Structure formats: structure tokens, C-alpha cells
Known about the structure:
- Helix 8 (246-258) packs across helix 9 (274-291).
- This protein folds into 2 domains: 10-182 and 227-296, Gcn5-related N-acetyltransferase (GNAT) (Aminopeptidase, 3-Layer(aba) Sandwich), CATH 3.40.630; 185-225, no CATH class.
- 26% of the residues lie in helices and 22% in strands.
- The chain has a 6-stranded mixed β-sheet with strand order 5-6-7-8-9-10, sandwiched between helices. A two-stranded antiparallel sheet has the order 1-4.
- The chain is of the alpha+beta class.
- The longest helix has 18 residues, at 274-291.
Amino acid sequence: MENFGPEFTYPIFGEDEAIFGYQGLKISLSFAAHNLKPHLAISYDRKFPDQGEIKATDIGTLLQDFLPQEAFSDSRRSVALADDAASTFAPPGQKLHTYSSDGTTYEIYATSLADAHARRILENMQIFVPLFIEGGTMLELEHPWIVERWKVYFLYKVDAQSSPSTSRYSLAGYSTSFRTFALPDRKSNTSIGIPTQVSEQEIDTLVAQWAEDAAAADTSHDPLDLPSRERLSQFIILPPYQGQGLGSQLYNTMYADLTAPSNVYEFTVEDPNEAFDVMRDVCDLTNLRSHNNDFAALKINVSVDVSKLGSDQHIPGG
Length: 318
């Protein structure tokens, strides 16, 4: 059992992050560690009686937009989250990386959200996005062509053994990425034969022809094989696992996997916060120093005379 609270609640309870009409209110949102099945329990000592239009906040109704229906079970938490198949649970997707720290093993798995198992886990825990990412929004997954473009990476802590009623796997964090079309380098042709110098009308004609071919079930034209940009969208390390370098492991694994396809031209991050920017900069610089001779040769001069660091000193140009 790990206990932690949210960073933000304004997406659910408004800008004032206030709940009206209760004394002794307790809201307990629990998740099974392996498949993130949720359970919501709300208790209080007293509730404000309705007086016309003035009513206590309807907590359950507000949370219905953020949790699957099974979270609102009337059963006790231990009953609602029990899973007879927990000991045989395996994370969805392909295992990309295994990492050990302080005697604890972590594994990273990746799969498309077209995988029903992965999508169910993500739907169970999507409330983490508004709770831990400022301004974060939950994914829209109604259309098959959208879920095929989404990819999810699960970071699991792995225990050496499991009991008959529990899983070896506990989610420590996850991230998602979305593949979009990107204009290729105009100096070279693409695999689908778009010329380097074309007008907008010619591009429209080419895309329309490609769409007609795809509709005719020509499987050689997969939209995901077009020149693409991978955009990291959501990135969460749960509070009990923060400060252990796990974010860097997850980011580096995603970077290597998402940039491996030859048709991926860019890897971007959607609206990162300052903490993520710092981690990303360190990871990217380490990667550059490992694979680029110019960056590997960079040195920091640590023997500068302190007198030369004053605010009135001349800064040499490049």
C-alpha cells in the first residue's frame, strides 16, 4: 500500500478547489497496483441539507467524467479490487527495458492503444492526468484510427515473487505519445513518392490519390508509415517513485523506441513543465555526448579565476 495525494483538483472541483457542504469529509480513491482498477469511497460526519438551490457538492457526479463506472462500486475496497488472476498478470505490450536500482527491478513496456488490455488500464488511471499534470487533459479514444496513433509506455516495479492473490507488478509511472504527419525534408523524396517541389494543389491531389488507394485495401499504404512526428503527450511518475531517476529511464526508453523508425522525422514534447524540461535537457545532453563527437568534446572550464566572474567583467564572444 502506497498513500499519496493529488497535486491539483481544480479540473474536478473548480478554480477554488473547494467542496461545499460536508464536515469530516474523506475521499479515498484506490487503485489495484497491477491493472489500476479503481475504487472510490466517500464518507463524512455531516452533510449540509438541501435548501432550495443551495446544495452540498455532488462529489460522485463530478467524478463520473474522470473515472470508469466500476469505480463507484458499493463493495468494500478489498472486495472491489480483488483479482483472482492477479498472480498471472502480465503488462500489455512489448518489454523494452529492464532497470535495477537499490535492489529493486523495474520494467518498461510499450504498446499501441489499439491493444484492448492497455487501453483498459489507461482508462482506469486517466484521472491521474488532471490530478498530477497542470492543465492536463484526458485522451479522446472514440475512433479506431486515433487509438492506432497513440502509444503508451508502462513503467512497472517488479517484485521477486508474488502471492496467490497478488501481482508481482506495481505501476510506477506511464507516458503516452501520438504520431502525426510531418513534412519531410524537401531535399529528398519520401517512400511514397511525393516530389520535392510541388504546389499545394498537387499535394492535395497526391494525398487524395493516396487515400483512394488506401480505401481500396492496398495494405502497402499504412498511414503510420508516412513521414511522421512523434509527440510525447502525458508523462507521470507517481509520487512514491519520484526522485529515483525513473523518469530519465522512461524518457530515454521512449526516445530510443520512438525515433527508431526511419519515417519519424521529429520527436517533440507537448507543453512540458519546468521539472520535465530539466530532466529532458539532461537526458538529451547525455545522449548527444554519447553519440555526437562535437558534444563529446565539450568541456566546462572549472578553473576560472573568481575575479573574472564579477558582474562588471567582460564576457568573451563566440
